Amino acid sequence: MGKLCVNQLKEECEVKKDLNLLLRISDELSKIEMNLDEVIKLLQEQLKADTIMISVLNRKKEIIYVEGSYGMENKDLSNITYKPGEGVIGNVIQTGNMVVVPCISECKGFINKIGLPYKINNLDVSFLCIPLKEKEEIIGALSIHKVYHGQPNFNDNIQLLTIVGSMLARAVRRRQKNHEALDELRKENSLLKQAITERIFKGIVGNSSKLNEVFSLIQSVAPTQTTVLIRGESGVGKELIADAIHYNSKRSKKPFIKVNCAALPDNLIESELFGYEKGAFTGANTQRIGRFEAADGGTIFLDEFGDIPMSTQVKLLRVLQERQIERIGGNKSIKVDVRIICATNKDLEKMITENTFREDLYYRINVFPIYTPPLRDRLHDIPTLVNYFIDKFNKQNSRHVKRITASAIDSLMVYHWPGNIRELENCIERCCILATDDVIHSYNLPPTIQNALSSKTEHQGTLEIILEKLEKQIIHDTLISTKGNLTKAATVLGITERMMGLRIKKYEIDPKRFKTSGNQNTDN
After folding, report:
1. pLDDT value, residue 23
2. What is the reported pTM?
3. Is residue 199 part of a domain?
């Protein structure tokens, strides 16, 4: 009789503890800023569990992630996910049925992604998992991992977990909706960023790290009035960068005048740039304004700037410094409010040493240099560019090319592209015309690309090409960090100065550019 009373008192005590727990959990869940970790901690103290975990189903992504836990503070659970039906937790969420595993070391369905111990102090560990439901919809699971000393009795724990689970379900549902809404916002944000990028960088296609550096520089300089010098080989898209800078500046609705300096004869370039007065020379029957006046309030783009003759360079100094011009045959200074963007594929530093380019003019235009990488240094952009050009020429030439074969892409990837993007564009236009089955094959490519010798792949295996490009990029990155200091760069890379000098010569790298261009990548 005495033993019966003791057992009854124990049961009453446990019931009282459970009721106190449920009241405390209810209070916590009713708070506006509900703390799920506090609820889990209260439950752990009552059940004396080793670990507790709340898992939630993301209905749109069809993945199960860990929302809250206890006893796994030293584990990174952010990347732990399950699929419905995967493991014990996935099975509970998929079926809606509770699962009790008396001994996890003997359960084949216990996949243990988190890495829980199968035994604690040489004692078997059990695992209990119940579904979290709201209005018959399964939204997650509540699970505990616990050592049962002696003969396991799960009934009391299951009953308490079921009650707590029903209380938690509504709060977990709120979190589920919040996560789904956050995912949707991130998706919309990504699409918005993509749309903005396409608008800002219209026609500039690719997502390589080098091109992303260029995008970042454009975004930084476009809103300013700063003079920009765009450098890079012929055909890399320097004009597109100038377009992006102008059309995303405050001058976007003002004139944008483009001048190809290489296309103008030396005796005409001044009259084109600065204009002339009536009677200034034979044939000057009327007054004519120059390109700088035409660009007043907007932007002037001086392409092939390195081809401007020395006599004209002197006059450009005044324009850059004072924003004033004089027409040929005139004696009146004319103020012009114009932003200047220059572009060149010439080695201006070398031209200065050869006295073919003025050093003072160089420092006037080299305010904000942007280096455009050649296509051979951004090979991973080729598939994206190819798709872009296929779509372009399908529309332009009423073609219906659907794709390009893997072998053709491989041929494009190993070619050295001396003509850069312009050459690739011409190549794809030709292929679109020759494609007879709406597919571009390797035999549609120009002979220069198909020929191993012309593409420099006869004696240079693909592995060697990749290794050389990697070595060149590492040297570039190191020179950027050391600001062109060869001695420091050699020390960082763990090679001798002589070895560094040989590689500089091999890859035709000019360390001076890294000194003048700050943190930009200005390789040849």
Report:
1. 73
2. 0.52
3. no
